[in-house]
Amino acid sequence: MDRAEVLRRLEEWGARLAKSILELEEPAMEIPARTLSNTVWDERARMLRLGPERIRRRFLDVKEARKFMQTVLMLRLIAEAIREGVYPTIRDLYYNGKHTIIYRDPWGRTHSENTWEEQDESNAVIEDIEVAVNALREEMGVSADVKGKVVGPVVIRSQGYELDASKFGETALSLPVNVDALEIVKVEASYVLVVEKDAIFQRLVRERFWSQEGAVIITAKGMPDRATRRFVRRLSEEFKLPVYVLTDGDPYGWYIYSVYKSGSIKLSYESERLATPGAKFIGLTASDIDEYKISDNYVIAATERDVKRARELLRYPWFQRPEWAREINLFLKRRKKVEIEALSTHGLKFLHDYIRDKIRRGKFID
Amino acid sequence: MYHYEALPAAEWFRRNRELAGFHNPARALYQTVRELVENALDATETYGILPTVYVRIGVVDEQRGWVSVYAEDNGIGIPGGEIPNVLGRVFYSSKYRVRQHRGIFGLGLKMIVLYAQSTTNRPVYVRSATLKSDKIYEYAIMIDTNSNSPAVLHRQEYPNKYKWHGTAIKVCIEGNWHAAKRRIEEYLRRTAIVAPYAEIIFRGPDVSLRLGRRTTKMPPPPEEGLPHPKTVDADMLKQMVRENGSATLLELLAGNFDGVGRETARAFAAWAGLAPDARVSELSQDDLVRLAERMRQYEGWRRPRAVSLSPAGAELLELGARAILGAEAVFAVTRKPESYGGHPFIVEAAVAWGGQIPPAERPLLLRYANKIPLLYDEGVDVARKVADEFSWQNYRVRFPAPLAVIVHVCSTKIPYVSAGKEAIADIPEIEREIRLALRDAAKKLRAYLARREREAELVEKYVSLAKYVDEIAHSLAVVTGASRARLAESLHRLIERKIGMTAEELLRRA
Ligand SMILES: Nc1ncnc2c1ncn2[C@@H]1O[C@H](COP(=O)(O)OP(=O)(O)OP(=O)(O)O)[C@@H](O)[C@H]1O
Ligand SMILES: [Mg+2]
């Protein structure tokens, strides 16, 4: 979909709202609900999908009025960007739209309120607009910070330049905003290793682990952005490479894995493009503490938040596998977590052995 | 050996002046102002005259703490011949009648004179003219305490060219202005609350206060009533028999008591086993004692009538409280007449809310008895007890709250706790009426608070939607090309429809 078509859809949506206002009908936005309850686990495709539920965001509902205003404001910002032919980031839009509404009521009191406080708020309405008009942010020409980095035997073409990700020395190739605009020219890898943490990524690069293994190593420095997920998906889909995900041994690490694999609750409408259902988990599990004899010095007590998060995971349909049930219940029983760095318990090189062990002997969770 | 002697009434009160409120120079100054103002109001409103009262306090001798107090009114005046007695004889009054007055004891003026004598040894100066009098009389008087009789030091008459009527009194006493100042101001303000038809002008050494007349409507003056049969005692009967020597029992009862006609008198006589036609002059002392007893016991009398009472009325109470307290809303009720021990009484109450009333942990209480504000001894007053025990939470009041409660008891006989006339005693009938009056007034307050709460919610709702109108109209106008002004206008209309009234209506209400 080109930007002109996106603009047409945005304008059409706005016109519907304006029409109902001018005809004195209560203006309401129909938006597919991006909530847990409207996140459907597609067992066959093995990914999260957006369900059929819709929210009605009504201006005359005191609880919804602020969101209504924010949505309309964002609608304007995006429409203006397309008309002017500029490509803002979501942060640009946040700053562009952030200002103080000063309202003097009929009683003479002055009220002031910011259009939004945190970027979370403006991001959320961008996502609402995406699902409401059924156009992706990327199609609108709105980008986000891309955190993804790649190293390994893969060659890509960007704006006519060929870039070989094996020739970056101790640095790495940064993924662009629109991964679909890349051409993946050549891949000579045997698998893709997705690493949660940048520090681990850098170690594996410096220690040339990728060349010993013939692996493409990728990180998104924590919770993955869309571009990184899309790139992993393309490698898996277009080159049939196995994908392994390496995370810390705590509920956050496990959830990050599930985002690569199945999609996220907030962006379930994007799973189709972003999920890699074949991704396998080779991060640390609760039972690995015994399995790899990790010394007590590296074992950390779980916090209340960890426990709460773990209980939530147990309820997610896409975590309903016997392996996960066992591991999470064990975690809840022991209330102990470990970071990847804990593998240094057996020397710095042990990380390599660990990864090989998990992959070669099939000790992963699918 | 014991030494026996009689103590004349005047001397007794001179010695025990704290019983009448003259405890110390501060309290005595306050009490002096009170007695003079109350006499002034009695001499005017009881006779349908709109009161105008001037009060002036001046420093006479700073060193010795001597002050002068001057009070002048436009009342009915005191007949020239009565002036020496009303000022110089303890227990001399025109108010020993069954009729609501501020004064009751026949003591107020005399206490002032006695106190002046004891502290500065100066006489009281009086000038007075009755309605339509050709003459104005002027006196300087002291009291001979041994004989409880006036000593006239000076007397003069002037022609009353301009038909002035009223009374002016001036005394010089030992008084502590600074300590009494706040109370005196408070007293005058509170007086104005129940008498908004009065004009009160006060000037003190460093303060002046003008409480203007806010209405010319006065409650109808009380009529003079007859004693209720439940209030009699043997002495009172003896005196009546002396005055009606030839009357039969039936005639005595039917002509001299409140609500007793021949019918009622006959029923009583039958109940008491007395011959209705017996001549009262032939009754023995014992008979009279028994008659008085039976009259007090009999349950068949009619309830005392309230013609001799003069409540302020809910309307005046609301007017006064709103003006003097600066309240946002006042709700007042006047209860129907009730009685205790044969004395009729009426309770009025008002609750005042918001405005300049400072929020407090318990209601600010303004007590009144026969339109006299009571400032001292609040702790022993029945009204304080009732107001504190009252379940305010049932009436949407949560403390701290900007709440003031006015309780006014009027009666032909106020059951004061002491002769200082500062607190009302705990009579069950009165307590009950105060409680019911508060309940009636608080119900109105509750309805008002509920309405205000609803309005506040509507205002909040209006604001929380209206503040986004411009932003939304602007953005949608940019996206669609529709008119920003029309969008904003329509959004406002939608909000008004949602809250069920226009912004102007809401503005007018809340
Ligand atoms: N300003 C006045 N104008 C007219 N008459 C007055 C005035 N002041 C006093 N009198 C008369 O003098 C009488 C005596 O007054 P005084 O204040 O001593 O007693 P009281 O008012 O009757 O009772 P109390 O002791 O309760 O005040 C009054 O009953 C009244 O008849
Ligand atoms: Mg008096």
Quick overview:
The complex is a heterodimer of chains A (366) and B (510). With 366 residues, chain A is of the alpha+beta class. Helix content of chain A is 41%, strand content 18%.
Largest interface (C-beta under 8 Å): A-B, 32 and 33 residues
Instruction: Work out the helicity level of chain A.
Output: 40-55%
Shape label of chain B: globular
Name given to the CATH architecture of the largest domain in chain B: 2-Layer Sandwich
Strand order of the largest sheet of chain A: 10-7-13-12-14-15
Q: How many helical stretches of chain B? A: 15
Strand content of chain A: 15-25%
Question: How is the biggest beta sheet of chain B arranged?
Answer: 8 strands, mixed
CATH class type of the largest domain in chain B: Alpha Beta
Q: Quick one: CATH superfamily of the largest domain in chain B?
A: Histidine kinase-like ATPase, C-terminal domain
Ligand roster: adenosine-5'-triphosphate, magnesium ion
In words, what does this structure look like?
The complex is a heterodimer of chains A (366) and B (510). Chain A is built from 14 helices and 17 strands. By secondary structure, chain A is an alpha+beta fold. In chain A, strands 10-7-13-12-14-15 form a six-stranded mixed sheet. In chain A, strands 9-8-11 form a three-stranded antiparallel sheet, with no helix packed on it. In chain A, strands 1-4 form a two-stranded antiparallel sheet. In chain A, strand 2 (39-42) and strand 3 (47-50) form a beta hairpin. In chain A, helix 1 crosses helix 2. Chain A is globular and about 70 Å long. With 510 residues, chain B is α+β, with helices and mostly antiparallel strands. Chain B has four domains: 9-211, Heat Shock Protein 90; 229-297, Helicase, Ruva Protein, domain 3 (Orthogonal Bundle), CATH 1.10.8.50; 314-446, Ribosomal Protein S5, domain 2, CATH 3.30.230.10; 448-509. In chain B, 39% of the residues lie in helices and 20% in strands. Chain B contains 15 helices and 14 strands. Chain B has an eight-stranded mixed sheet with strand order 5-4-3-6-2-1-7-8. In chain B, strands 9, 10, 11, 12, 13 and 14 form a six-stranded mixed sheet that branches. The model of chain B has no long low-confidence stretch (mean pLDDT 92). The complex binds adenosine-5'-triphosphate and magnesium ion (MG). Adenosine-5'-triphosphate binds next to helix 2 and helix 4 of chain B. Residues 35, 38-39, 103, 108 of chain B line the site of magnesium ion.
